[in-house]
Amino acid sequence: MDAVFALGNRASAEQIRARLINPPTDSAVRAMLARLEKKGCLRHQYDGPRFMYSASVSPTTAKRTAVKRAGPDVLWRLIAADDDGTGGGRVMD
Predict the structure, then answer these.
(1) How far apart are CA 86 and CA 74, in angstroms?
(2) What pLDDT, on a 0 to 100 scale, did the predictor assign at position 1?
(3) pLDDT in tens, 32-50
(4) More exposed terminus of the chain, fewer Cβ within 10 Å: N or C?
């Protein structure tokens, strides 16, 4: 969603993919966009041969929804992760 907002709230799948760090495959990005559309966060319009995506919620609502869906333990999972991201770190002994 941040990529869509950064691109002026109107972007193609290719433009969104280009904004991602370590982007997944083109088909994975399209699947992600379809899921966000199904959840009511995005909508699309035809623009010639491609879809142009725009947010159907505000940036504040999108962030709030993402935090709620991540769950209450997301902070602890991030803290407990090792530097390599494997999650083997420990918060307390």
Answers:
(1) 14
(2) 86
(3) 999 999 989 999 999 999 9
(4) C
